[in-house]
Amino acid sequence: TDMSISYTLSLSLSLCSDHQQALAERVSLSSMLAKSQADLPARRMKDSYIEVHLPLGSEPQLREKYLTYHNTVRFGRILEDLDSIAVLISYSHTHNPALPRSPLSIVTALVDKIDMRQHIIYPDCDIKFTGHVTWVGKTSIEAKMHMSQVGTYRPVLDATFVMVARDPENKRAAFVNPLTPEGPEEKKLFQEGETNKSRRVELSTASLLKVAPTDEERKIVHSLFLNTLDSKTVSFRSRVLPPTSVWMEDAKLKGLEICHPQERNIFNRIFGGFLMRKAYELGWANACSYGGCRPNLVAVDDILFQKPVDIGSLLLLSSQVCYTEGKHIQVRVHSEVFDPLTRQHNTTNVFHFTFASDSDVPNIVPKTYGGEGHHHFTGCFSIDPDISMLRLNWL
Ligand SMILES: CCCCCC(=O)SCCNC(=O)CCNC(=O)[C@H](O)C(C)(C)COP(=O)(O)OP(=O)(O)OC[C@H]1O[C@@H](n2cnc3c(N)ncnc32)[C@H](O)[C@@H]1OP(=O)(O)O
């Protein structure tokens, strides 16, 4: 439609040659920020609607970047593209034609959900992404995206991201245009956005570190515990691994990334999409070694971007199988920046991926209440309502 704008995926946003100068120029944009949300004109959902075409089928030289060894598409690359598209959607929504450039810094705050409708992505077929803003708060934007493939454009996945607008220096929150839904379908989407907002607030306060587990969660944990008690000694310390099970501590995989300038965004921070790709690949490798076969991704939930990652950081990634059920493996990847000079650790992201193996996988069993004792891995066991309950309902 004429409302849709097609962009190519090589984002000009990331092609700033002199970053220091670009950052200095950005500061001067502060005076263009709106003083209140009411000062900004309301937008319709179709104002931010975009379509992006990824010609994997028709341009073989592009394919290499997306190809796995097993002739499927690298999902980590798709995560990067979704992140870029969510940014584009947010800039389309907030676009002010009277200004030479946007004073807003848009950052990814949360990947709420990615549902896979098809498990294999073909590297020799073109991909189409569509998406638009579905809800806005005062400074946050919910964007939904859909990806489809092949001549008939079969649906591949649906994704929901939350983006947050900040001032040009990425220091304070900044207002975004209001959204006016039109017609029953848009009103429904907007209403769902409202519900999502309350759920997100609830979830963010429901961490195990703050709230006790529910009755149902307690029962699961207790039965896991009873199953591992040594009947001869009946001691807390002496524990026996049940048949076809693996201790949590034996289902980890770790990695390190040095955050080079190549991966920075226009605000001189590491791209959310890059972080997601790295975390996804580590999580996949862990699920692969746990299940003993190449697993398919089933869902991505609650990727929280708590803190930006600076260029030059050492990024420590730890992945842990935290829940299993039948063929399904749930992996949590925790990332933190480590400053080798001050020896300080800071959590930047938490990722949740659910994979399906070819056949049933061993049960994952925690030895301790916290999952296991590593101090950078607090609350990794799946009694965290963010993780196991969601999955229990879902599977
Ligand atoms: C080209 C550039 C590409 C850039 C894209 C990227 O890759 S960005 C790189 C990856 N992402 C990052 O580095 C972001 C790291 N995280 C952060 O910097 C911060 O956590 C944050 C700015 C997102 C949020 O910080 P704060 O929570 O302190 O901000 P504040 O309290 O002012 O809230 C601002 C708005 O965000 C919403 N918000 C904050 N966290 C949220 C969450 N988990 N889920 C939903 N919404 C959330 C709030 O409701 C509020 O919206 P309302 O005001 O509507 O109520």
TrEMBL record:
Source organism (scientific name): Myripristis murdjan
PANTHER family: ACYL-COA THIOESTERASE, ACYL-COENZYME A THIOESTERASE 9, MITOCHONDRIAL
Domain HotDog ACOT-type: 48-169, 249-361
GO molecular function, a single term: fatty acyl-CoA hydrolase activity
Gene3D superfamilies, A to Z: Hotdog Thioesterase
Cellular component GO terms held in the UniProt record: mitochondrion
A GO biological process held by the record: acyl-CoA metabolic process
Family: Belongs to the acyl coenzyme A hydrolase family.
Record's keyword terms, sorted: Hydrolase, Mitochondrion, Repeat, Serine esterase, Transit peptide
Name this protein carries in UniProt: Acyl-CoA thioesterase 9, tandem duplicate 1
Subcellular location: Mitochondrion
